[in-house]
Amino acid sequence: MNPIRISLLAIFAGSASGQTKAPAGPPPPPAAIAKLAGQAIAAKEASQLDKAVTLYKQALRLAPRWEQGWWDLGTIYYDGDKYPECRDAFRRFAAINPKLSAGLAFLGLCEFQTRDFGPSLDHLEKAYVLGMPIDSDLTRVTLYHAALLQAKTENYERAIQICRLLARLKPNDAGTTAVAGIAGLRRPLFPHELPDADKDLAVKLGTAMLSGGDHPVEDAVKRFDALLKEYPSTPSVHYAYAIILLGNDPDRAIQELKRELEISPSHLPALISIAFEYLKRGEAGTAQPYAEKAVQVAPNNFAARTCLGRVYLEREDPDLAGATRELETAAKLAPDSPQVHFSLAAAYARAHRKQDAERERAEFARLKELADKNLVQEVR
To answer: Are the C-beta atoms of residues 344 and 359 closer than 8 Å to each other?
Structure first.
């Protein structure tokens, strides 16, 4: 059975009719439809759902901004597997109350079922940013489906980040582990799309990656060492291990990144990671070939362009023109990245372009403030 169906039915089990009530204290129905609304609610509570749908539709035609009416209609449609109708009802609800995270979450989950994956991901992420109870089933379902879609759309780092949060909320969850493993393998797949031959690998990789969160790093190291004995040449496994090691054993991390590049010479994240690690050590010259290869592999990747710009800027013989060119390109590719603007400000300052440097510092400060606000939401 579809995991969204299982999870949402559990959430919808909040009343005798199997429906979830609208958020506490919804506005009452307009006086003009009070009687009709009451009949609709009574029919729903009596599980006379066909009658309830007819009554809700009549009421909503007369009062299209009746908030609870759209909510109740959406949950009835969901319970009847009528996902397009459910989606449309929650769209109307979200248009009336766009700041209610639960409304956006349900909208995103319905859109997942109708395969409207772009809007679904947008609404699921917005729901979480708006604020959701960290211990609720709805929060976990929302995050799980956001992770699924982030992996499917090749935003693997974000998928893994969400899976680590989910692992703290519900440790050892099989679904979360599978998504983390698929993201770690960098496969744009849903779990049911993964070939049977790779499922054991995905579970073991996901377990190893998530053990690097609240558990001791030594646990992750043991799991990865065992995993690499079994899968020594599988693409992306050495990279996943390196990311765990970077904060604790950077020398070993570089070894793993180099091993990854022996297996997958064009592995973009490995190229960028090793280049940035050498930059961190003040070895821009050593970083340069990796950064140049990263731009060659992905010329429209802002992280690759930022990395190469930093390399040109921090070499013993700085190439200020090259640094400015790469960082300006990065800023066009990712105008909302604080670090891009920070690096570009440094390049302008080195080139004595004072006004441009001040502009980029101001933009960095603005974007950093926004990013910090979002971070508070992530860790609350």
So the answer is: no
Confidence of residue 23 (pLDDT cuts 50, 70, 90): low
Domain 278-380, architecture per CATH: Alpha Horseshoe (1.25)
CA torsion through residues 217, 221, 223, 224, sign: positive
Sign for the pseudo-dihedral over CA of 228, 222, 287, 150: positive
- Cβ neighbours of residue 148 closer than 8 Å, sequence gap 6 or more: 112, 159, 179, 190, 191
CA distance 76 to 86: 8
pLDDT digit string, tens, across residues 304-316: 999 999 999 999 9
Per residue in 76-94, pLDDT tens?
A: 998 888 999 999 999 999 9
Please give the single-letter amino acid code of residue 190. Answer: F
CATH of 1-153, picked from 3.40.50.2300, 3.90.550.10, 1.10.357.10, 1.25.40.10, is 1.25.40.10
CB 207 within 8 A of CB 236: no
Query: Considering the entire predicted model, what is its pTM?
Result: 0.85
How confident is the model over 321-338, as a mean pLDDT? Answer: 96
pLDDT at 88: 97
Residue 282 token pair:
């003040």
